[in-house]
Amino acid sequence: RFYRGVRSSAMTFVNDDHKNLYYSFFHQLDDSLPYNFLIFWLLAQNNLLFRTISEEVFLKFYFNGKVSITGDDVFAFLKHLQEEDETFGQLNWTKKTMEPIASKYLTILKKLDLLEGTQKKLIKHIQMSDTTLAIFIYVLKVCYPETSNILTSKFLPFSFLTQERFVEKVKKIAQKGWFEMTYTGTNLNIEPIIKYNQLSHALFGRP
């Protein structure tokens, strides 16, 4: 139901290839597909505030091994952002504005199956499958075509993998023939070989 609501709402894409990639998954919904990650990544592309909170709070908590995240954690960051960031500072948000934002952010993450719990949201350990990681690689490449070395991408933490683990998994799944890659030890270059509008079919055998 949540994913159908997202499908029916306006979605903004970086370019036509990005749009075609998402269409390949959303034109015919299938509960076995990783829509939670697809939506998480799309929200990060579409909404600067969502991306900033995700980068500076949620993902930092995740990689630091914290087990929970609260509305107070997000609210404290929003207050810091208002004081330190010129763009967000100009919004003149009040406490009554920021508290609902903090709460809604955590609600979204729970709907995306990244958190669990009620008052105290527990951070789930993410086990990303090979196919989901392949989707992430294609999303990263289509949104940041100018980034030749994947390891320098600021979007890399959205894979829920450390850089070292990311390289290990990419080298493993490259053998499946979903993309071409070269790795020199410091530079990881990946070239997509599947058409973006055929990605769900190639990875999951969908029509």
Produce the secondary structure layout.
Blueprint: H1 2-8, H2 16-26, H3 35-46, H4 48-63, E1 68-69, H5 71-84, H6 86-89, H7 95-111, E2 115-116, E3 121-123, H8 130-143, H9 163-173, E4 179-183, E5 188-192, H10 199-204
Antiparallel strand pairs: 1-3, 2-3, 4-5
Helix pairs in contact: 3-4, 3-8, 5-7
Summarize the structure in words.
- By secondary structure, the chain is mainly alpha-helical.
- Helix content is 54%, strand content 8%.
- It is built from 10 helices and 5 strands, in the order H-H-H-H-E-H-H-H-E-E-H-H-E-E-H.
- Strands 1-3-2 form a 3-stranded antiparallel β-sheet. It has a two-stranded antiparallel ribbon with strand order 4-5.
- Strand 2 (115-116) and strand 3 form a beta hairpin.
- Helix 3 (35-46) crosses helix 4, helix 3 packs parallel to helix 8 and helix 5 crosses helix 7 (95-111).
- The longest helix has 17 residues, at 95-111.
- It is globular, with a radius of gyration of 18 Å.
- Mean pLDDT is 91; it is low at 1-9.
